[in-house]
């Protein structure tokens, strides 16, 4: 048995504070902009089947029980008790939490308490810029306040993340924009932006990315399919290559999140550049019973010290469970198979599993051992 005693979830979100109804619960089982097609259900997905396999026993039910029975049991326990049982059953010891997801979600401290774990904050750059813009009247004030906000955030967070503007190659240009260009873009955006409006201007997004690079914390970039629930756009990792090359040697690690179905290119970039890492994340959680095959593809291309576990989960604690337990099972199948074939020793398999499960994240994010 491959040993992964504890996990560092290097990218996730908080969970809902209130009990979700059937429609809300189902909506978060799939990355879809609307409900399931008439007469169908999102429980009939790899994620839905994984939830029914792994989560019912944590709530005192048999695996694969019907969805209605599972959700009824969830309501019997109450949202807090169900959350506590699920998170503590995941085996996650440390959560790195992107606090930029909208909704009434638990923060890092609440997530840590419910899961009997540790938690640290990841700051979402776009949300930071939007918050600064809400209190800045002029372009000059906005840029000065934004610079201060980035450096203040860097003192308390473990990483920055960027989630929007991904469809624009301009946002990932291989050099920072000039001061005059940034000031002009900020003036245009502030003049036409409704309060609370998102930042979409590629010049401001590029300025945010390079500001984060200058701050020195690891920078997480979403590099896969988008997610309408999380205001995350789609990014083909090939669009990131010039930016990746330009940031080499500057002292900031880049972590490519959610690379599936472009995970092979994300793993290639992690292998080609010393400062680039690839996240396993939903590449495993959303492929469910096929996760071992996807993991094997990642291990073909990236050095083992460049791969990081995450659940990528948010809103439903079930997704944290699925992310963690599917990861453990996939590691056992792939590495255990190589041990059985004589290709690897058990000692090496356990060592690599520990690196990917927790050790690499502790090194990249400078977490205590």
Features:
369 residues; alpha/beta; TIM Barrel
Task: Write a short abstract of this structure.
By secondary structure, this protein is α/β, with parallel strands linked by helices.
Q: How would you describe the overall organization of this protein?
A:
By secondary structure, this protein is α/β, with parallel strands linked by helices. The chain has one domain: TIM Barrel, CATH 3.20.20. Strands 1-2-3-4-5-6-7-8 form an eight-stranded parallel β-sheet. Helix 4 packs parallel to helix 14. It is globular. The chain starts with 6 loop residues before the first strand and ends in a 5-residue tail after the last helix.
Segments where pLDDT lies below 50 for 5+ residues? 228-234
Q: Report the CATH C-level class.
A: Alpha Beta
Major sheet: 8 strands, parallel
Tally of distinct domains: 1
Major sheet strand order: 1-2-3-4-5-6-7-8
Q: What's the helical proportion of residues?
A: 40-55%
Mean of pLDDT: 91
State which percent range the strand residues make up. Answer: 5-15%
CATH architectural type: Alpha-Beta Barrel
Number of helices: 15
Order of SSEs: EHHHHEHEHHEHHEHEHEHHEHH
CATH topology: TIM Barrel
Which structural class do the helices and strands define?
Answer: alpha/beta
CATH superfamily: Metal-dependent hydrolases
Number of strands: 8
């Amino acid at each position: 048995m491959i040993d992964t005693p504890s996990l560092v979830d290097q990218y996730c979100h908080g969970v809902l504070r209130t009990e979700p109804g059937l429609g809300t619960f189902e909506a978060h089982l799939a990355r879809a902009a609307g409900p399931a097609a008439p007469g169908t259900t999102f429980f009939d997905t790899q994620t839905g089947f994984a939830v029914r396999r792994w989560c019912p026993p944590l709530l005192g039910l048999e695996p694969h029980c019907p969805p209605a029975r599972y959700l009824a049991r969830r309501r019997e326990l109450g949202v807090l008790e169900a959350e506590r049982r699920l998170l503590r059953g995941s085996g996650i010891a440390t959560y790195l939490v992107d606090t930029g997801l909208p909704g009434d979600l638990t923060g890092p401290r609440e997530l840590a308490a419910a899961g009997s774990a540790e938690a640290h904050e990841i700051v979402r750059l776009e949300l930071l810029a939007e918050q600064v813009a809400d209190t800045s009247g002029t372009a000059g004030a906005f840029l000065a306040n934004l610079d201060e906000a980035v450096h203040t955030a860097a003192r308390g967070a473990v990483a920055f993340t960027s989630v929007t503007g991904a469809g624009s190659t301009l946002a990932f240009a291989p050099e920072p924009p000039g001061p005059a260009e940034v000031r002009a873009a900020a003036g245009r955006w502030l003049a036409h932006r409704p309060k609370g409006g998102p930042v979409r201007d590629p010049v401001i997004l590029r300025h945010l990315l390079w500001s984060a690079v200058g701050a020195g914390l690891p920078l997480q970039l979403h590099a896969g399919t988008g997610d309408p629930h999380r205001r995350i756009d789609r990014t083909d990792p090939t669009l990131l290559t010039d930016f990746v090359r330009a940031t080499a040697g500057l002292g900031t690690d880049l972590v490519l999140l959610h690379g599936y179905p472009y995970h092979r290119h994300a793993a290639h970039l992690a292998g080609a550049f010393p400062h680039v890492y690839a996240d396993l994340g939903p590449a495993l959680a959303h492929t469910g019973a096929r996760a071992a095959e996807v993991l094997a593809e990642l291990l073909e291309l990236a050095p083992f010290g460049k791969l990081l576990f995450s659940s990528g989960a948010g809103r439903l604690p079930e997704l944290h469970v699925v992310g963690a337990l599917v990861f453990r099972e996939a590691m056992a199948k792939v590495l255990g198979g190589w041990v059985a074939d004589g290709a690897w020793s058990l000692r090496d398999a356990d060592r690599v599993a520990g690196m990917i499960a927790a050790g690499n994240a502790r090194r990249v994010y400078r977490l205590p051992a």
